[in-house]
Amino acid sequence: MRSPLPRRRGAPRSLAGSRSGTLGGVGRRGFLKALPVAGAGAALLGGCATKEGAVTDVDRVLSISLGQAESHPSYGSLVSFGERIADATDGRYGARVYANNSLGDQQETVQLVSDGAIDMAVISGTQIENSEPRFLPMNVAGVFDDIDHQNRVMLDDSIVGDLFASLEPHKRLTVLGGYTQGSRHLYTSGGPIESPDDLAGMKIRVQESEIFLRLIRNMGGVPTPMAYSEVYTGLQAGVLDGAENNEISYVTQRHYEVAKHFTMTNHLVGFDFMLANTDLLADMDETDREAVREAWKETQSEFVEIWKRETAEATQEMLDRGVIISEPDAFAPIIEETGQSILENPEDIALYDAIRALSEKDGA
Ligand code: GCU
Prior knowledge:
- It is built from 17 helices and nine strands.
- It has helices spanning about 15, 30-35, 40-45, 75-90, 105-115, 125-130, 145-155, 155-165, 170, 195-200, 210-220, 230-235, 245-250, 280-285, 285-320, 330-340, 345-360, and strands at about 60-65, 95-100, 120-125, 175-190, 205, 220-225, 240-245, 260-275, 325.
- Strands 1, 2, 3, 4, 5, 6, 7, 8 and 9 form a nine-stranded mixed β-sheet that branches.
- The longest helix is centred in the last third of the chain and has 35 residues, at about 285-320.
- It is globular and about 60 Å long.
- The two termini are about 30 Å apart.
- The model is unreliable at about 1-50 (pLDDT under 50).
- The structure holds alpha-D-glucopyranuronic acid.
- Alpha-D-glucopyranuronic acid binds near residues 124, 181, 245 and 272.
- Alpha-D-glucopyranuronic acid binds next to loops.
């Protein structure tokens, strides 16, 4: 696995590095300010010179925002998605992938997709949960057994159909599905971490989400919300004592350089949702719209296998780099109890039960 330098905010490589005369040298904010909202991505991006991350020999280039580095498997997968769309629509649509949050942090990109300034964005479950609390049960500890169970649920229209369309009327956001984040774990600069006592007083970075705040608090740490792109420097400066994420993010963001103790807590199987602007899809011919939806489903399922392979590679890289990996038992009961405790209203419990039922039915 390649390990690029973690991206810093304010240095948008994708835009500045573009060979397009229109975009070259324009900062992110200047670029977005210049966009006249709907369809703007097409006007500026269509016909760009070909560059890694883009399928541009098409009539309409869709802009896709991603918070990960190019070495993260979601980047390559999104590029394949663009190729699939180009094939399936006979070149009417393609895509350009903007990595490293170069179009904005996830929270900002939700609004930009809603406005039509960006066509699509990959955002963490925690961000969507903040926009629409009905997604909450998909983010809790224990709801998914593993990534195969999660993928079956995310492709089952009887469970996700209405939910994925629920942001359309008022936010103009359509959820196409998404990417697994795999199992998430804890990592710290000091360690080893064997029990909640070892985490006492430690500032652990979390995503802005009640679930994560509660989880880390119950596990014994001090939850500290912060943007993904700022975690490396937070750990380096000692503002944070640790963070939590999957093996692939830990390696591709090079967090092992500043937090060497990796504690396998498996506290939840996360999901990144793929958002598309609703009007973009509505304006497509029905065959193109279906082609895009199908291309996404194929991409999503293929990603599950890519994820397994790359997680094994990341784990090997961690060992090669001297990361100290431990697997204590002390956290499992706390995690299980916390997962259930956050769900209070009947709709949330019904969704949780529907997801769990799919696991039992298929023997996941
Ligand atoms: C994972 C996930 C991202 C998320 C990040 C985080 O890397 O794929 O979407 O932003 O975790 O912890 O913020």
